[in-house]
Amino acid sequence: MGKYQKGWRLLSTVSVLGLLASANSVAAQDIAEDGDFLGTIELGAGKREVQTDTGVPLTVINQEEIDDRQAATIAQLVESVPGVTLVNGTTPQSSGISIRGFGADGTYGANPRVLITIDGATTGGEEIYRIGNQLFTDPALYREISVIRGTVGSYEYGSGVVGGVVQLETKDASDFTGGEIGTRFRQTLEAQSNGTGWASSSILAVQPTEDLEFLLNYTVRDNDSYEDGDGVETANSGFRNYSYLAKGRYTFGNSREHALSAWYNVTHSDDNSVPYDILGASSGGGFYFGDVDRITDSRTAGLRYEFDAVDNDLIHFEATLTYAEQDIDSTYVVGSCAGFPGCDASVSDLLNADHNYKTTKLQLKNTSYFDTGVASHDLRLGLEITNRERLDANSAPGGTDRRVALFAVDDIQFGDRFTLTPALRYETQDLKGTDTVSPGATDPYNGEIKNDALMGGLSARYEFDSGFAVFASAAYTEVLPIIDRLDKDPSVWVPEIGTTYEAGFSYQNQDVFTSGDQLAFKVNYYDTNLSDVRVAGDVLTQVDVDGFEVEASYGMANGLYFDLNGTVADGEQRRPDGTVSEYTLAPVGSAALTVGKRFNDTLDLSWEVVAAESTNAINGSGPLPGYGVNNLRATFRPQNGMLEGTEIRFGVENVFDKQYQTQLSTRAAAGRNFKLTVSKTF
Q: Where are any strands of DSSP class E within 163-290?
């Protein structure tokens, strides 16, 4: 990679010098004169807003941060949220997400304790042996990512949420037209040095009338395998994907009280001669599964109707029908495991297996605003019907999972200070395997499971005049059995029981230390207990995780800002025989600090350091030392001249080429990586 490093070092020097030289000459300029909407930059605030107005542990990654991080995968974006840990975040097919120690691990890439939605469509949630996650999409399609940590705040979205909820919202045409009649075209080109790669994202936003808008997005991303900090290439870490998004919205009615939206979202990858074990957890030990040719498709589609009654605060209704499909077709490369025990004879059926998942969901929800005496209510009532189908495959039983749920969440406001939020969700399940599934011999249910569960929580928040607020919550949920467990012994066909207690405080105010500054921070303590946990070998265990999460932001009127987030946690696992051991998936102590400076709307320079404590590798390869990694970012938005309406982003990740490996990853992280992105809206 030497020739690439020399070229990129020269490019980086020229880019940074150019940005700094032009800053003073254009820093006082206003927004682009042609009216292109390039985003709102607020001086005196950090890059990431701390959600101090709610007791829910919520983090929102907006469009500005998505662009500035220049991430190649969704997982690389949510990794910056406290309590979130990745299995391997650099490739889409292995980007398993764990929140507070619940979610993806090193062998199975997904489980239902972390819920993922794309425009309301539920994706993932089933385990796939050694094939990674089912969040397979491209960051360029999205304008916002919200992460709810823990159970409280999850009842509108699903059951069994112990780790949290990751919500992805795709871009809208109005994000580029500003809601005005016209057409906008945005082209983005990206390049990176380590794992030499490029990406192109083309967006066409059309708004023929004030009531009608359309968006088309086509994105291609191509990365080679990257090198770690020691200069060693990480095999099979490259990928090539293409994605596209089609989306439209029509608003109608005398008062524009009706709206109809539709969208279709696809990401496709075609990989040749890649390891069956995407996660790399089976490397070593004298065994190798072999290679496959793998085609992966992820599709989501949706149709939404909204009615916002103009003269009735009790009716704000929306009906959303979504469809999500993940299709993984594998073909074994004959002889690719030659020399290893059981080659060909034992692995051909496993590696030739094709996996297919289809989830159809209808959600009807109404929001009502009303008063009862001294209390004002924001009440959300909903009905959700879900049908999930899984194709039979080797090591992955097929079947159907049909669910019906009712939920109610009421934000009750007493005066201006106290908010009480009770939440309930009642869900029924009818889980049934296909004719080819062979449950255990002691199966008393003939391959069919029926469950129902009443789940709920209560949260309270009190805000003082000083800007301080305190909050606390208690939440209960049940993780209902998934299709993957139908070929296991019926002793594990029971719901997992999750309880979480949380408490914390927050603060937000202006003019705290100096005129025009803004300070916000939030500290949250949680204690989660999960019983009847299903793990490999069908052993039932109990898991306890408790920890602290911190988010803070400080910005000054001169554009200087600081962002901080961190977590520290501890976990233990109990087995039926009373044995207590460390729960190695609990988040390791870590923190991230960003220091930056904005020069009006023109230039944003920032330095980020990410640090973590030492831990043990999940694949048994030994202890992993702690680390501190530095990242530099610059965003330049020329306000006049030929480059007006252009955004130029330059980043250097792992500036000092540190050799390190994150907690749940099965391979070393990437070494120094230069990134350059150029975007232009026409």
A: 164-170, 182-192, 197-209, 212-223, 239-252, 258-275
Three-class SS string for 487-541? HCCHHHCCCEEEEEEEEEEEEEEECCCCCCCEEEEEEEEEEEEEEEEECCCCCEE
Q: How far apart are CA 347 and CA 342, in angstroms?
A: 7
The helix (run of H) or strand (run of E) holding residue 15 is: helix 2-26
Name which of 443, 410, 575, 495 is nearest 159 in CA terms.
Answer: 495
Percent of the chain topping pLDDT 70: 86
d(CA 674, CA 62): 23
Q: Find the largest Cα–Cα distance for the chain.
A: 78
> Within a 10 A sphere around the Cβ of 298, how many other Cβ atoms?
27
At residue 13, does pLDDT exceed 80?
Answer: no
Strand order in the sheet with 84-86: 84-86, 97-99, 102-103
User: What is the enclosing helix (H) or strand (E) of 6?
Assistant: helix 2-26
Rounded to whole angstroms, how far apart are CA atoms 205 and 103? 36
Question: pLDDT, tens digit, for every residue of 81-124?
Answer: 999 988 877 777 777 888 999 987 766 666 789 999 999 999 87
pLDDT band at 445 (very low <50, low <70, confident <90, very high): low
Question: Within 10 Å of residue 160's Cβ, how many Cβ atoms?
Answer: 26
Q: Is the pLDDT of residue 282 over 90?
A: no
Which is nearest to 146 in space by CA: 77, 196, 96, 238?
A: 77
Percent of the chain surpassing pLDDT 90: 63
First to last CA, the chain: 36
Helix (H, G, I), strand (E, B) or coil at 10: helix
List pLDDT tens digits, range 408-419: 999 999 999 999
Write the CA distances from 371 to 182, 393, 422, integer angstroms: 42, 54, 16
- pLDDT surpassing 80 at residue 361: yes
- Name the H helices within 112-203: 174-177
> Residue 311 region, left (φ>0) first, then alpha (ψ -120 to 50), else beta?
alpha
Kindly tell me the burial class for residue 219, based on how many C-beta atoms sit within 10 Å of its own C-beta (0-12, 13-18, 19 or more): buried
Q: What is the mean pLDDT of residues 301-324?
A: 96
Nearest to 164 by CA among 216, 109, 117, 226: 117
Q: What's the token pair of residue 237?
A: 């870490």
Measuring CA to CA, which residue among 450, 451, 472 is closest to residue 462?
472
Closest by CA position to 124, among listed 85, 171, 75: 75
Contact between residue 290 and residue 320 where contact means Cβ atoms under 8 Å apart: no
Coil/strand/helix, residue 92: helix
CB-count exposure of residue 176 (10 Å: 0-12, 13-18, 19+): buried
Give per-residue pLDDT as tens, 373-432: 999 999 999 999 999 998 887 777 888 999 999 999 999 999 999 999 999 999 999 998
* C-beta of residue 187 within 8 angstroms of C-beta of residue 194: no
- Cβ(328)–Cβ(294) below 8 Å: yes
> Which amino acid type is present at position 118?
I
Tens of pLDDT, residues 454-495: 999 999 999 999 999 999 999 999 999 888 877 777 777 789
Lowest-pLDDT choice from 126-135, 466-475, 596-605 = 126-135
